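Cross-posted from the bioinformatics board.
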Amino acid sequence: MGMMTIGKLASATGVKVTTIRYYECIDLLPEPDRSKSGQRLYDQNAVERLAFIRHARDLGFSVKTVRELISLQVEPDRDCAVVDQIARRQLGEVRRRLTQLEALEAELKRMVSACEGGRIGTCSVLASLSDHETCLADDHAGAEVLASSPSLKA
Amino acid sequence: MGMMTIGKLASATGVKVTTIRYYECIDLLPEPDRSKSGQRLYDQNAVERLAFIRHARDLGFSVKTVRELISLQVEPDRDCAVVDQIARRQLGEVRRRLTQLEALEAELKRMVSACEGGRIGTCSVLASLSDHETCLADDHAGAEVLASSPSLKA
DNA sequence: CCTACAGTCTACAGTAACTGTAGACACAAG
DNA sequence: CTTGTGTCTACAGTTACTGTAGACTGTAGG
């Protein structure tokens, strides 16, 4: 249970091998020891740190913020309020996005149920997309809610 | 009300000037006419097309999908089911993300309310980030839900 | 011992959907 | 006529990875 290769670390944490190397590259993970042939060797510490990173990323914290959290971890005497504030900010973001997504869900649901299988020329889905008057918030609201998200290659 | 410059089009649709040029570059918008000095000139058609694009993007459709929808618009005799299916797929995605975000909200809320303002060394927020056992879905679930989203530079 | 074959290495290019920058030209108001 | 804002092109930068090429390493079977 001492040292493990990058592949083991990957399966232990659910983070892809390439992503681990990427994290090292951007100094989110420290450079690990190497075997005599040059392969990376990790210990239990690395597992914990990577799990921390992954969990924070899963919660939507940016890499920048994760870096911040890690640097805070190192100085355990500072005031906890900093961390609390970061978490609250994140919660605020999540709630904002929830609200937007709920609006999107409503509109998509309406679009789909309005479709009664005619020809495209009369398709109500396309009609409601064209119609920017009946839009949720007319000019500038729910932009980029889902856009450019890796899990949304619709 | 005939021809407008790119800036007018931008304010008419809420899409940034640079983004409009970008859409032209990736052939989402056709090349517009130019004034004798070379400035882009748009008509009401362009406003409608761009509004359509923006609305679809706001709803989370990828650029690729938007392109698909536009090409479908051109042939109004085809079966509406294609469009319906795209919208349903999108609705599915939105619902999946809603579920994930709700889980994230719950966890962040728990983290924040558990924080009682001590020192970082004992901070429960950092503790729950480190603790990958109490994670939502232990090994591979809510990854990249918010990650790399432009509106989330936490 | 030899041969597959999976795992690892580096370095770099590609992805999505823009955003920002630099330097030059255009147009309207005062 | 100047000032300021708008527009032009072309290209680099952003975020957080992912994928690829080409070479080496480590291991299990025969």
